[in-house]
Design goal:
CATH class of one domain: Mainly Alpha
Radius of gyration: 22 Å
Structural class: alpha/beta
Strand content: 15-25%
Order of helices and strands: EEEHEHHEHEEHEEHEHEEEHHEHHHH
Shape: elongated
Number of strands: 14
Helix content: 40-55%
Number of helices: 13
Length: 409
Amino acid sequence: MHAWPASEVPALPGSGRDLRIHDTATGGRVTLVPGPVARIYVCGITPYDATHMGHAATYNAFDLVQRVWLDTKRQVHYVQNVTDIDDPLLERAVRDGEDWTALAERETTLFREDMTALRMLPPQHYVGAVESIPKIVPLVERLLSAGAAYELEGDIYFSVAADPSFGAVSGLDAEAMRLLSAERGGDPDRPGKKNPLDPMLWMSARPGEPSWDGASLGPGRPGWHIECVAIALDHLGMGFDVQGGGSDLVFPHHEMGASHAQALTGEHPFAKTYVHAGMVALDGEKMSKSRGNLVFISQLRRDGVDPAAIRLALLAHHYRADWEWTDAVLTEAVERLARWRAAVSRPDGPSADALVEEVREALADDLDAPRALAAIDRWAAAQTAGGGTDEGAPGLVSRTADALLGVAL
């Protein structure tokens, strides 16, 4: 599966700072010091309704992570999946009377277009669940052989007891895990499971649903968590730098994925740092496909909204914050974009050398994008007031906004 084209990232004078970021697993800040190649895995979409504002906020956060790393002169090895076979996708296809493969392809194409418009840096490996099945099956077989998985009425389940570190990512107690499992695709009440929290690794073929050859597992399709594990292990290996996604993935998805990988390899940790973006609400409720309260990037673009303004609307909120999309949020972003573009269109202006360092420091401090925006706001205000004769300043501000924030002026 192919990703989307990369926009050029301008080089800035000097070098960026190492990123200090909140780690979900420890509950505190850690300083990320990757090697020459920083490794990141971000969980992708299930392509039956793409791309809403919640998606965009999540991918914007991890785009900033990449930009901070690139500014430190590191390379970035970024991997993202597409869950192109899953119950919600099949259910939507049935509801709409559409072939599930056509639905997945259409929505994945739309997602690529939205990411391109928003200037999100693409992954080096953009991998679908379906194309990963030949790599998933051997992993499930290995877990079975090791006694870390078991069969129940043809389905294969992972035993959470197989990982001594289970629970270390989310820090939740058993009852909280059980409630979230029921809410987020698990089946804690199924009779016969060794532990209510045990997640499915391989679902045996169901009548009327697609299935694939599972070798010794029999025909079926993969569970949700093992998909990302197979892709991440194949392209990044154990101990990669950042596992990312929305905060709704902390449990069960990232917790289970870590346990799968750790049981498979005997190594710990799966990822060094777990980073999660907040949720976006509309009309007082979290924006989600199940609620149907979605603001789509593609619709805003069709309505003539500049993608740079959409990006500024996202950047105006700290990535870990839960926030609400309103017309006022968009209006403020459109006005900010107009002020910035007017400011950099002048032939000279106040020196911007200190501004570059302000933006760098803000982003290195747990991706504090609102503080970075405020720094550029102050420069733009000084420019409007007519202060400064530095002919290189407008161009440097423009390159800084592009390189570090992904906003093309």
